[in-house]
Amino acid sequence: MRKFATKYGYFDSERNEYVITRPDTPRPWVNVICPGDWGLVISQTGGGYSFRTHASLNRITRWEQDLIRDDWGKYIYVRDDDTGEIWSVTWKPVCYTPESYEVRHGTGYSQFTSRYAGIRSELVIFVPQGEPVEIWLVRLFNESDKRRRLSLFTYFEWLLGAAPDWHREFHKTFIKTWYEPEAGAGALLATKFLWELPNRKGQHWNRDWEYYAFHSGSEPPAGYEGDKEAFLGMYGSLRAPKAVKEGKLSETTGRWGDAIASLHHRVNLCPGEARTLVYVLGAVEREKKEQAYELIRKYQEPGAAERALAAVKEFWWELLGRIQVRTPDEGFDLLTNVWLKYQAISGRLWGRTAYYQTGGAFGFRDQLQDSQVFLPLDPEKTKAQIRLHAAHQFEAGNVFHWWHPILEHGAVNKISDNRLWLPFVTVNYLRETGDWAFLDEQIPYRDEGSGSIYEHCKAAIDYSLELRSPRGLPLIGDGDWNDGMNAVGTEMKGESIWLGHFLYGVLRDFARVARRRGDVMTAERYEREAAALKAAINEHGWDGRWYLRATTDDGQLVGSATSKYAKIFLNAQTWAIINDTAEGERRQAVLAAVKEYLAREFGPLLLWPAYGEPDEKIGYLSRYAPGIRENGGLYTHAGTWAIWAAVKAGDPEFAWRLYRSFCPVYRGLNPDLYKVEPYVTPGNVAGPDSPVFGQGGWTWYTGSAAWLFRISTEWLLGIRPEFGDGNGEDGDGLLIDPCIPAEWDGFSVRRIFRGATYLIKVFNPEHVSCGVKRVTLDGRPIALGGGCEGHGTGCLIPVLGDGKEHVVEVILGR
User: Is the pLDDT of residue 247 over 80?
Assistant: First the structure.
């Protein structure tokens, strides 16, 4: 069923796809497909790249970041062998004018369908779960009234290592390609005798790339090619390569050219006839070369590829479908049920890459926050992420800012918030699971020794408590949540008011954890520290109408009404509400300031006004163009927290106004202004100090997806896990505390929680925004209690854990 259609495409709500109906979208609209290890990124033109484990250190195919041309990818040419006419299965690289063109980006696959010169072609590209390979399922249909003789030519450039290989004339000399006719129907293989990573002795430029890459088809090829010059021709073009024009490949391989891969297949079709071919691209460890042959043979048979595609769809739906919502807001449902979860998992957690940022590393704070998306889906995956990050913490309590898998090298700096996300996410894991035994699990520190998860969390908190100013405020160091404030506190004198709000909440919550474990001494110490910190924030961090953002090493105020630029910062206000450091009149004052200065038609600005010139005391944040990214634009990650704060402040109208102001589904209805994909969140949207106010950017690779999912379900719909302070499960449960538009008649949620499934039906006969009037569990009344200040009353549904489905009916009202 078509939803939210524009001239560029629409949502297909029945198939959980976004359908692009023409190739010339305002920016590349991509899919990030990664079920764990092997991954690819592909745009609606056919541009993109493939990787294994790490998109920058272990790139398989070459790609250049050029969002204007978008002309690097993996392509399939079609040649009419009778007329010599050339086109391609995707719009790029030939840029032909198709009779029809459609791209369906789905969860785990993308499908391209086009018609040209009486030939309809379909390409489905996907990655089977658990296998280091991608599959290109190609179908050709002869819809003309005559017999057609066609040729298909695949094409891409091998990279095989760290990207970008900017010095190609150097790097190409280390790549070897060869053809093995006995590998299935015949396969091109490639490896490289240089990997930029240090070897076991720590030496650079002295290590093999440790894989064999392969490319094969389901039928024996008419020819193959491993040399770029032979394929394109000297000074040739991707639009009309010499080899495709001539209809033959030279079968050149070896170590002496510029390495590519191309296979040639001839396809003869009678009128009305169809033909299916399968191509694979993958890479295996050198010691597992036989696995490459097994994968090549496995997918020679088109039926095997079809079954693998069905398994991919089932894998993603089974994972994403574990929590489903149904509300009167169809855009909200599309994002919450499918796209936010898929973006966070495939793009941020497993792929860790996209088009605007090609990554591959783990950010200590980044993927920890992202892993919260798994809590209502598969909390064991959040648990695994906590383990992984705890293992990248040092015994003193500090952590890597980021680290590279494969290499296991990382950056150690003085950014001050990273470590605190470990206890923050651990507390949320405990709320979801009640798995208190996890706190006793031993995890090694990065440098020496080991500690329990509980000790790791305490080390992070205690390290932060040591780094405070004489006024009792946290030191910002090389930056806090905002890396762009990298010059504010490098001398370890500058203070972070936002970090104070955040640390206060961590102290308060972890004191409850300590108390429940019986560690009364730690609980009381953290409660004392929290109280002192809250007092310091309100004494030294208040600017008169809102909270300061920070102070610099020399005492300059950041985020003050007296500042020339950046008079007010969003996070310093929202987290004051989220963590209750602002109370009474101040709570209302900061919300009013957000409304007056920061809430704009395309989302809440991170700061206002934008820096108009660089400030060496602030850092690179001030060096962005005004209105771009953190410098006075919507930074979507922080925008989601503004929704959370509005809910906590008891302002449902403002919360939903914020949501709709930057919801990509609704922003995408004006695609030529918004430009980016309407089905995933952008990292940023240009602010009013920019001439492109409202233009999105940095899609896919943003922490906003997991946060918007969590806030949508836990705070807007108001269904969130809680734990009590006592022993056992007393006080544990699923809190029902909605904050919805008053015009809604109700909504429903199907959610798994601690071993039981809850079908929650919320009715709103009085058309209120919040306040629970009556609740039944399987027809039995439940006592009311809990909920946000200003909301009225919520209701805690008890833990059942019996493996059964239970019906919860909620009546809202005064």
Answer: yes
Q: In the beta sheet, which residues pair with residue 86?
A: 79
pLDDT at 729: 63
Q: Please give the span between the terminal C-alpha atoms of the chain, in angstroms, as a whole number.
A: 37
Q: Are residues 120 and 137 in contact, defined by beta-carbon separation less than 8 angstroms?
A: no
Give the integer Cα–Cα distance in Å for 423 and 509.
9
Question: What is the token pair recorded at 390?
Answer: 């705890």
* Cβ-based neighbour number of residue 14 at 10 Å: 9
Tell me if residue 81 is catalytic. Answer: no
User: Is-cis flag, bond preceding 221, omega within 30?
Assistant: no
Sign (positive/negative) of CA torsion 60, 62, 67, 69? negative
Q: Which of 483, 651, 689, 737 is catalytic?
A: 483
SS (H, E, C) 640-662: HHHHHHHHHCCCHHHHHHHHHHH
Q: Is the pLDDT of residue 688 over 90?
A: yes
Output the six-digit token pair for 585: 């009149």
Query: Is it the case that residue 728 has pLDDT exceeding 80?
Result: no
Instruction: Give the number of other CB atoms < 10 A from CB of residue 102.
Output: 18
pLDDT score of 278 more than 70:
yes
pLDDT at 726 over 90: no
Q: How do 780-781 and 772-777 pair as beta strands?
A: antiparallel
Task: Give residue 792's pLDDT.
Answer: 59
**pLDDT-based confidence at 555, cuts 50/70/90?**
very high
* CA dist., res. 246 & res. 233, Å (int): 11
Question: What is the rounded CA–CA span in Å between residue 541 and residue 544?
Answer: 9
Which is nearest to 119 in space by CA: 155, 86, 153? 86
**559/574 Cα distance (integer angstroms):** 14
Distances (CA, A) of 365 to 370, 419, 481, 706, 729: 9, 7, 9, 13, 30
Rounded percentage of the chain residues whose pLDDT exceeds 70:
99
Give the CA distances from residue 119 to residues 21, 23, 140, 155, 334, in Å, rounded to whole numbers and listed in that order.
18, 18, 7, 20, 34
Element containing residue 121 per DSSP (H, E)? strand 119-126
| pLDDT band, residue 784 (cuts 50/70/90) | confident
* Whole-number Å distance between alpha carbons of 201 and 207: 10
Burial of 287: CB neighbours in 10 Å, binned 0-12, 13-18, 19+: exposed
For the segment 665-682, the average pLDDT, to the nearest whole number, is 98
**One-character DSSP codes across 431-482:** HHH--GGGGG-EEE-SSS-EEEHHHHHHHHHHHHHHSB-TTSPBB-BT-SS-
Q: What tokens appear for 286 in the block?
A: 């050198």
Alpha carbon dihedral 592, 597, 601, 603, in 10-degree steps, equals -80
The residue among 194, 199, 191 whose CA lies nearest residue 171 is 194
Residue 344: predicted pLDDT = 98
Rounded to whole angstroms, the Cα distance separating 26 from 674 reads: 9
279-290 mean pLDDT: 98
Closest CA to 780 of 807, 812, 747: 807
What is each CA distance from 621 to 39, 340, 690, in whole angstroms?
31, 27, 15
HEC letters along 694-723: CCEEEECCCCHHHHHHHHHHHHHCCEEEEC
Pairing of strands 756-763, 805-812: parallel
* Separation between Cα atoms, residue 344 and residue 336, nearest integer Å: 11
pLDDT in tens, 451-484: 999 999 999 999 999 999 999 999 999 999 999 9
